[in-house]
């Protein structure tokens, strides 16, 4: 396999809409932060030390069964263009911050379907991630832990008996685990209940962020919910807790959708119909409007108001309309207006292909 | 023939979009105001005098060849429901004010295709009208004058050698002639030039009004332009003058459309595409929004951006989505929300039927 195959493939595994609760829980993610003992954290690495660090990681990595069986590939960022790295961000496989450098000692490890990945020298030396469709936190944890075990057998992690895994940012010390789910909550938004609910979630130790994690806006009614606390709880407890809150939110969203269908049937069908009508006929559309309308269309599909479109197609579109993916498809750099035109074209082709 | 046939037919002749300049000049109208000598103007008529007046008109009317050949029919408003009268307003065959009463001495004379009509005891005893598609002011005048001559041979009109035809409102004294055209000027609106142009038109002795004449709003970029002056000019001069200004406006609108297609190609196609998308998928739509979007779609057809829809269909839709027509079609009285739902359905059916 090749990292670029994953970058240029339209589909990665989290986009599969048929997973458990996949209508509301788009994806689940587990991320483990790990660092090497006696090597400075990434933000303190100079070129020479950075290369040493990469060498150690690469060595351990090449001993792992995943590498030896050709299931995963490592690529450093000096071999990926800025557009390639941005496409990885848009596919949720690396963080926006990590994509910013073309450093030769920073990079990514990926498997074929994008379910398992590791960021090298992002905020920590290693950020092992598993990203699956639907509500699959336990499965994510098992897979991430498997890769973690393989690497740990070759590496000396910075670990303290009392504090647990040591990390560059103190908010990750302990388990080093961040569990998150990407939720699609349009009914909650439409009924104006999101703020109240998000406030309650905060009191339960959870954080809610936008489509691309920390510092990004909520768009298209997509919410990323993750645990705030990484210490004083086991990995299993963190996953169980997040899963329980997610299930509650899913039930609440379903209830609100049913109520909408009863109380505001025509208004709902109107909103969804218009969204579909605009998406299939616009010639210029910006990212936020497109996400918002795709969210309406997604709701229409989930509620059986629209037919013929699959959740997979929409998950794919949400990524395909982002700037780097659009420019890759057009094979040229484009300004905002150019992208808005290309975006409308991509959406139209996709929706026409489906009909 | 029967007046109700014209009321319930979706199509009347002015809706024909293939007439001369019919892409911009929707219709032309000539209206002649006439009154009977020695009978008070309609607003001064009590029931007894009103019935006398109607009797005289009916008598003269029954002598006319049009009546005797069964080409035109007279109906008084005590035989037409409020909804029926409203449908005549929506088809531009009587004025909104005339529709308000169910008086037994007020009424209408119509021919089969709605091109020739006469309001009885509206503001004047007789308002003879001819309404044709496209720019056909001379043809309208010839037809209206023909009917006028037939009636004048049987009736004594209130006529003064110095002042001409006498009318209830002094603004109509003289020729009693009002010539008007219904214009569709979307490019003028989009480029923000309407106000300036309308101001200039005012200085040329023309008045601009909305879709349903005096006191109605401009909607869907439809403008009704008519002569302000009825005295001191012959009928032919009035028609020639209005025709000349209309031709200028048509040329200006065409020029602006060409410029839009060059300078704002994508924005234009986007606006038109979205309008079509919303109209074909909305479930609730109010009258103003529908008119405005139909105007965009009409522009798209005229400019070759949209295919498969005929101007006739859109002219028909502009009338079919009005409140009385919607309620007639639904065969029930409906509140505003009910009409908004029915309107969306009627538009969708029409557009689907076309595609």
From TrEMBL, chains A, B:
The keyword Zinc does not apply. GO terms for biological process: phosphocreatine biosynthetic process. Keywords: Allosteric enzyme, ATP-binding, Kinase, Nucleotide-binding, Transferase. Appears to be allosterically activated by the binding of pArg-containing polypeptides to the pArg-binding pocket localized in the C-terminal domain of McsB. SUPFAM superfamilies: Glutamine synthetase/guanido kinase. The keyword Protein transport does not apply. GO terms for molecular function: ATP binding; creatine kinase activity; protein arginine kinase activity. NCBIfam families: PRK01059.1-4. This is Protein-arginine kinase.
């Amino acid at each position: 396999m090749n990292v670029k195959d994953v970058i240029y493939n339209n589909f990665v595994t989290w986009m599969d809409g048929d997973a458990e609760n996949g209508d509301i829980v788009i994806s689940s993610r587990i991320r483990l932060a790990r660092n090497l003992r006696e090597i400075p954290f990434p933000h303190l690495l100079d070129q020479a030390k950075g290369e040493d660090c990469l060498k150690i990681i690469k060595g351990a990595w090449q001993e792992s069964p995943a590498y030896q069986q050709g299931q995963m590939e490592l690529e450093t960022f000096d071999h990926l263009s800025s557009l390639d790295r941005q496409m990885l961000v848009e596919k949720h496989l690396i963080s926006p911050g990590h994509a910013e450098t073309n450093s030769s000692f920073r990079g990514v490890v990926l498997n074929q379907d994008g379910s398992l990945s590791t960021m090298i020298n992002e905020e920590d030396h290693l950020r092992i991630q598993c990203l699956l469709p639907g509500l699959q936190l336990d499965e994510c944890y098992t897979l991430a832990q498997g890769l973690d075990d393989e690497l740990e057998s070759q590496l000396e992690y910075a670990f303290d008996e009392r504090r647990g895994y040591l990390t560059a940012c103190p908010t990750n010390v302990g388990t080093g685990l961040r569990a998150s789910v990407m939720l699609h909550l349009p009914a909650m938004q439409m009924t104006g209940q999101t703020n109240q609910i998000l406030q309650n979630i905060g009191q339960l130790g959870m954080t809610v962020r936008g489509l691309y994690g920390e510092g990004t806006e909520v768009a298209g009614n997509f919410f990323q919910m993750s645990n705030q606390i990484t210490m004083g709880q086991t990995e299993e407890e963190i996953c169980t807790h997040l899963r329980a809150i997610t299930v509650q939110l899913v039930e609440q969203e379903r209830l609100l959708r049913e109520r909408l269908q009863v109380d505001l049937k025509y208004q709902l069908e109107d909103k969804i119909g218009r969204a579909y009508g605009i998406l299939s006929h616009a010639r210029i559309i910006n990212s936020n409007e497109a996400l918002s309308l795709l969210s309406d269309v997604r709701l229409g599909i989930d509620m059986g108001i629209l037919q013929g479109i699959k959740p997979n197609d929409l998950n794919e579109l949400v990524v395909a309309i982002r700037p780097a993916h659009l420019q890759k498809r057009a094979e040229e750099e484009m300004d905002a207006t150019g992208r808005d035109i290309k975006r409308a074209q991509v959406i139209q082709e996709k929706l026409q292909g489906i009909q």
